[in-house]
Amino acid sequence: MHEQVFIGLGSNISHPEFGAPAEQVAHAIETIAVHPELELQASSSLYQSAPMGPQDQSDYINAVVHIRCACSADALLDHLQAIELHFGRERKEERWGPRTLDLDILLFDQQIIQTRRLTIPHYGIAEREFVLVPLFELAPEMVMPDGRPIAAWVANCSLKGLRRLRTEITSGEHNA
After folding, report:
1. Annotated catalytic, 59?
2. Residue 110 and residue 114: Cα distance in Å, rounded?
3. Which of 68, 99, 128, 148 is flagged as catalytic?
4. Tens digit of each residue's pLDDT (9 = 90 or more) over 121-144
5. pTM of the full predicted structure?
6. Beta strand pairing call for 163-166 and 46-49
7. Is the CA virtual torsion 112, 76, 69, 129 positive or negative?
8. Residue 32 pLDDT > 60, yes or no?
9. Which is catalytic among the residues 74, 95, 102, 146?
10. Catalytic residue of the set 89, 91, 109, 116
11. Residue 74 catalytic?
12. One of 68, 91, 104, 109 is an active-site residue; which one?
């Protein structure tokens, strides 16, 4: 079985090996795409957004990818957390602090999952323009798990501080 999955990506700290945040997001998409149980369907434009929480940090670079997934949600979470670690992600007590890479499972088909490890749809999706706008870009006709169209969700979120950077995430740009 192949589930339709959407993953949010974000970065606001450069990494000596993987480059600036935009380069890290592009490289992370490539890393996701080569996993044997994941098939990349599409990726959104890159967006710049103000940080959530502490404002004494750099703006984030965000994107969303649509994949087909042949593994469980828990196995996908394990894989995404391994990618975050590979990119130098440090899990700290501070919530919404700066990070080299953040990967979140936003939607896992139309499933609603509530476990100790996972909340899907992602718990903050309705308030996060940096997730909803790129998600809408990829799937404008989507009906969310609550039965409402994604357009209704986007219409109810603030777009303050969100800026579209570019429409194409180039393969290999992390080597530039």
Report:
1. no
2. 13
3. 99
4. 988 888 889 999 999 999 999 998
5. 0.89
6. antiparallel
7. positive
8. yes
9. 102
10. 89
11. no
12. 104
Average pLDDT over residues 5-25: 93
14: its two tokens: 């450069």
CA distances from 89 to 2, 34, 105, 117, 140 (A): 28, 20, 16, 18, 31
- Close Cβ partners of 21 (under 8 Å, ≥ 6 residues apart): 11, 12, 13, 14, 58, 60, 61
Query: What pLDDT was estimated at residue 96?
Result: 65
Domains annotated for the chain, with CATH where assigned, are 3-175 (3.30.70.560)
**pLDDT class of 175 with cuts at 50, 70, 90:** very low
104 is catalytic: yes
Query: Is the model's pLDDT at 171 over the cut of 50?
Result: no
